[in-house]
Amino acid sequence: MGGEIGTELPPAALDGLHGRVGRVLAVGPVVGSDGLARASATGGGLRVGVACSRFNGALTWRLLEGALEALDECGVDRSDVTVAWVPGAFELPLVARALVESGADAVVCLGAVVRGETGHYELVAGECAGGIQRVQLDTGVPVAFGVLTTEDIGQALARSAPGEANKGREAAAVAVEMARLLREV
């Protein structure tokens, strides 16, 4: 979802694959009349875990609001959503794994790492991303990366603002899409 003008996969491209390959698996987002991608209502019956970082919590809260809106739009029942709060982004992979082990069909990790004057940015952001990737590869359950990694607070505020461009919203839609796609494979 999102992307630069001219880099989006044209909707008709997938249609062109039929007849050229045996199967085309895609459960992607619905594109609205305004051209923006929106989550499709395919989340019914999915259990979704949302791991949230308290560090930079005001930013994470905005991401969570976007994620919950997208899960609603996808048809995920609110009683099937578990939100777990951790101290910081570094701890997200561990709780993501625990959510998977407790039965989540997909997990959304939300947080914000803003570059500062020390080297913590590279360590925290890199280890967080690597840990989240490792959880999904080790478990086979999608774990969406909704962790902002920005140069400054202004960028983080822009990426967590309410609306279609909210990265928490995007991550939740990706988690649902991937859970459904994996069921098709």
Description:
- There is one protein chain.
- The chain has helices spanning 11-15, 57-74, 92-101, 120-139, 153-159, 167-184, and strands spanning 30-31, 37-38, 48-53, 81-86, 106-114, 143-150.
- It is of the alpha/beta class.
- It has a single domain (11-184), classed as Lumazine/riboflavin synthase (Rossmann fold, 3-Layer(aba) Sandwich).
- The strands form 2 sheets. A 4-stranded parallel β-sheet has the order 4-3-5-6, sandwiched between helices. It has a two-stranded antiparallel ribbon with strand order 1-2.
- Helix 2 links the parallel strand 3 and strand 4 (81-86).
- The chain starts with 10 loop residues before the first helix and ends with a helix.
- The relative contact order is 0.20.
- The mean pLDDT is 89.
Task: Give a brief outline of the structure.
With 185 residues, the protein is an alpha/beta fold.
Q: What is the C-level CATH assignment?
A: Alpha Beta
Content-based structural category:
alpha/beta
Number of continuous helical runs: 6
Q: Strand count, sense and closure of the main sheet?
A: 4 strands, parallel
Beta percentage is 15-25%
* Uncertain runs: none
Q: Specify the CATH homologous superfamily.
A: Lumazine/riboflavin synthase
Overall number of domains:
1
